[in-house]
Amino acid sequence: MRIGFIGLGRMGANMVRRLVRDGHEIVVYNRTPEKTREAEGEGAIASYSIEELVGKLEKPRAAWIMVPAGDATEAQIAELMEHLEPGDTIVDGGNTNFHDDQRRHPALKAKGINYVDAGVSGGVWGLKVGYCLMVGGEAAAVEPLVPIFTTLAPPNGYMHVGGPGAGHYVKMVHNGIEYGLMQAYAEGFDLMRSAGKDGVPEGQRYDFNVAAIAEVWRRGSVVASWLLDLTSAALAESPTLERFTGHVSDSGEGRWTIQTAVETAVPVPVLAESLFARFRSRQDHTFGDKLLSAMREQFGGHREQK
């Protein structure tokens, strides 16, 4: 299948690589031409403007946007609309607020343009293991894209979860849960590491090898998970996590999850506390905060803000 792909960042470039390797024809555009040329060298079809990208697609066209949510995505949609025609489809694969999807869908539909929202999880590991895809939109718009979803996702790793905005709603909740899981690991390992500190009563003092414990928990433990795998990898690389400050950022979805919970009167105390812990980390850093930073780098390539 031929599809346009806009945005060749950490995830976007690897998604293109995965698609190209499975035989799809991917027309790419990136704001910086160096990344476009790099993708071309790996089998993609280069374009150096949105107009050129659209011109190289076959009708009915489909263009996947993989740029930061907000103004950057809005700008790309606006520019695409100058060149697309009725029957064409725009896919937003970024971490967009589902309210934006609900606004865009009727506006684009009025002009005959299909709109699909795709929540994407997999980070820097997606090229190798595939991306979990949570897809929202009308069935008639989603169905033609199934070959793309099938290539990007591992077996049974994508789902059409509902109408416009549903994909990004599910991805929002997914990331809210991710915050809570990460916080639980961070606090637990912080407690074990603190067992050897001065001031701990003699009978309760232990010098735990937290890297080794993370590794053994990966085997048969009920808390085993991919996040624990990444935690173990981070601790194996640096048991004291000295290169991390513990300043933990949040990318938006955690806040939206809590806001949505408030709007719908659904109690989510663990998810809320995990978000507030990230706010606190920017004032006072613990070993647990450093572990959170290390996990974010492991799964998503997220670097600490300086």
What would you note in describing this structure?
This protein is an alpha/beta fold. Helix content is 50%, strand content 12%. The chain is built from 14 helices and 8 strands. It has helices at 10-21, 33-41, 50-55, 71-81, 98-109, 126-129, 139-142, 146-152, 166-194, 210-217, 226-237, 253-264, 269-281, 287-300, and strands spanning 2-6, 25-29, 45-46, 62-65, 89-92, 114-121, 132-136, 158-162. It has an 8-stranded mixed beta sheet with strand order 3-2-1-4-5-6-7-8, sandwiched between helices. Helix 4 links the parallel strand 4 (62-65) and strand 5. Helix 9 (166-194) crosses helix 12, helix 9 (166-194) packs across helix 13 and helix 10 (210-217) packs antiparallel against helix 11. The radius of gyration is 21 Å and the shape is elongated. It starts with a strand and ends in a 6-residue tail after the last helix.
- Can you count the beta strands? 8
Percent strand: 5-15%
Low-confidence stretches: none
Please tell me how large the radius of gyration is: 21 Å
Strand order of the largest sheet: 3-2-1-4-5-6-7-8
Number of helices: 14
Give average pLDDT, whole number: 95
Name the shape in a single word: elongated
Based on secondary structure, the structural category is alpha/beta
- N-to-C order of helices and strands: EHEHEHEHEHEHEHHEHHHHHH
The amount of helix comes to 40-55%
Distance between the termini: 42 Å
Looking at how many chains there are and whether they match, the oligomeric state comes to: single chain
Biggest sheet record: 8 strands, mixed
